[in-house]
Design goal:
The structure is a homodimer. Chain A is of the alpha+beta class. Chain A contains 14 helices and 19 strands. Chain A has two domains: 277 residues, Aminopeptidase (3-Layer(aba) Sandwich); 123 residues, Alpha-Beta Plaits, CATH 3.30.70. Helices cover 34% and strands 21% of the residues of chain A. The interface between A and B is large, with 78 and 78 residues.
Chain lengths: 449, 449
Amino acid sequence: MKEYIEQHKESFLEQLKELLRIPSISALPEHKEDVQAAASWLAKSLEDIGMENIEIIQTKGHPILYADWLHAEEKPTVLIYGHYDVQPIDPLELWETPPFEPTIRDEKIYARGATDDKGQMFLYLKAIELLMKKHGTLPVNIKFCIEGEEEIASPNLPPYIDKNKEKLAADAVLISDTSLIDKGQPAICTSLRGALAMELKVRTANTDLHSGSYGGAVPNAVHSIVKILDTFHDENGKIAVQDFYEGVPTPADTIKEEVAQIPFNEVKMKQELGIEDFFGEVGYTPAEQVSIRPTLEINGLVGGFHGEGFKTVIPCESSAKISCRLVGDQKPDKVYEYIERHITKNSPIGAKVELKKLITGDPVSLDSNDPMIQKAADAYEKVYGVRPLYPKAGGSIPIVEVFYRVLNTPVVLMGFGLPNENIHAPNEHFHLENFSKGIETICEYFQTL
Amino acid sequence: MKEYIEQHKESFLEQLKELLRIPSISALPEHKEDVQAAASWLAKSLEDIGMENIEIIQTKGHPILYADWLHAEEKPTVLIYGHYDVQPIDPLELWETPPFEPTIRDEKIYARGATDDKGQMFLYLKAIELLMKKHGTLPVNIKFCIEGEEEIASPNLPPYIDKNKEKLAADAVLISDTSLIDKGQPAICTSLRGALAMELKVRTANTDLHSGSYGGAVPNAVHSIVKILDTFHDENGKIAVQDFYEGVPTPADTIKEEVAQIPFNEVKMKQELGIEDFFGEVGYTPAEQVSIRPTLEINGLVGGFHGEGFKTVIPCESSAKISCRLVGDQKPDKVYEYIERHITKNSPIGAKVELKKLITGDPVSLDSNDPMIQKAADAYEKVYGVRPLYPKAGGSIPIVEVFYRVLNTPVVLMGFGLPNENIHAPNEHFHLENFSKGIETICEYFQTL
């Protein structure tokens, strides 16, 4: 299979370049037609490799693509998810070659979307094409569900999944939108934290007041918000909001072991980030704190005069952006309620507070012993020569939880990117070594199933 | 004297209008020549009323004016201070008539500087002119020291005073740059709070970090500053910085009585300001809190992402503007040291803090029983029919403390404005009733001395 891939690699890369040339930036209205064009290009490619029942489903935003091939009788069915939209490109001046003119240098392909996620998604199409060419058929049933709104938080996909449970039913959902641990060390991510983002506003008077005339006798909106925000953590870095830890599991030893196996160089990381020390929940390692423990962070804060110079005002309003990362069975809506109650209880005299929910996403954790995951691990081992590790991601990909919950099926997060491929940044790229090995691993996986 | 003033009122107002037409905005470089023009106009007027030794002293900024008349042998000498510069005028669209086209309506003169301080300072010139015309001489020795930089914090006057102690020596410094309590109720302000303004910066990492990848394990610059700022006050509204109250006197009963005599309508004020309740140091009334007690206020705070929407960053820097109002014998430089020490002691792990001093000004309190003040009170009583009250201002006019300390002489703050004459705001004005009564009161005062 390896040789067969090498024979076709050049033409595969030319095809990928075509897709990468389409500036399908979902966040920018002026690129709406480009996003549509990327969907059409993919629909055509799916047809070319033998997929059937191809649909471009229009939504209020960008379209969802569906396709299937269901002729492998009594074999399992896999649902492949990916996204054909990309992040904006600014700052443009930092790109060494233009973001939508794909260029190969040093065995990497450079372009916006090269690894996130056009390049990784494309691997599945080419794996299927090769298997079909070689055997005239496929060893598994395939369904594709590809969206164009991942970079804008997938507003239209969850309702589509909800309404099409039967149609999308599968034995596993396959997603390649994560990364290896490092060159040569594959990874299957088995946990993603959930998210809850909020905005807190505090108001204490009609208008900013002069600190000479009123200072000392009236509430100050910045003092008030400081007082509230300072109640969120105790001296051990634990979140001091009542019931916040409801649903947070005590990590099993096996999970702690899986976390400990992921390389985490504290000394190097401190240097790179310019931090004096790590700082978090007592009783957990930094690697655990950023992956399997929940957080509450203030992401931004503003109030009063903060320009050049000085203004002797008593601020009448202030606001803070606050977010949580959630784990286990924590529910964003419940956690929001607890935080709201906590803020009400801790609001000082004269502070009118208002909390607003902005973003929610459930956490998800997958069992690395699930046979669908273990077979993916076998495929990785065959191609890369080592078994994958099982990292727990600190970030959130809310759609993973939706697939897992609504379709009631394991999700296999097989990453083929590398951690430093500049996703969401200038000079995004994808290593060609993993382009070839990715196709090979997917072929192996399908054959093992 | 009253009739004599009425006879000349029209021509006096025409003269004042000439001065008010000069847009002498000290803060704006494009008005530098206008500030100079106002100084020249005043120098000419001082000459016209018989003043001698007139000097326009150039500085690095705008000029200082000096003039004197020292022929009242064995009589006391008064030094009259005022300023001929004005505040900027924006928002221009809110002015009912243009700020530099003085207009009289409803017995008020409208223009930028009408009450602060061209109008009030002009009263002294006209009082002297009338006395001189009537008697051919003056009952006191007069010195004028008028500046053009009061609205930009008087950078050049204190060193001038320091260098010219002998030249400026007097039995009292007279300043009319404050206000009556209300129509018909005169006031001599006998205390001004000092000021100390600072900026605190906190840094925790090289760059903002992603809250998914690092959330839970690294310091957050907003958390850090919140933790520091929340240590400044205890639960009784007292400032919890060690040694902060050094030099703060326990208010004497007479002082508390003088404060209590000033009308302070708590109910009305709460409504007007839109505050739920007053909030300050336990054990003092709001009227005391804003006048004879020191404060520490956060005037502004910023850190992380605070625009529309959401960004899941862990902020790497934050900053706060902090200021104190000081009383009694508190020294701004000492207080700054105590605050710096306090911040160092209370900085959490991983926070690199930096404090910068921006503004300092000493507090001043004057004894209402001083004969120079009591004679001013007599003059007020003769003209207004009631004795003045002795308010303690919550704000700061640092030059008052400089005169008081360097010349070692009482400062008599005889206000003739009214509290709602829109100083520093659109539609600034000055009531003509107090224009006439002001001139009369000053004449009476000079004759009493």
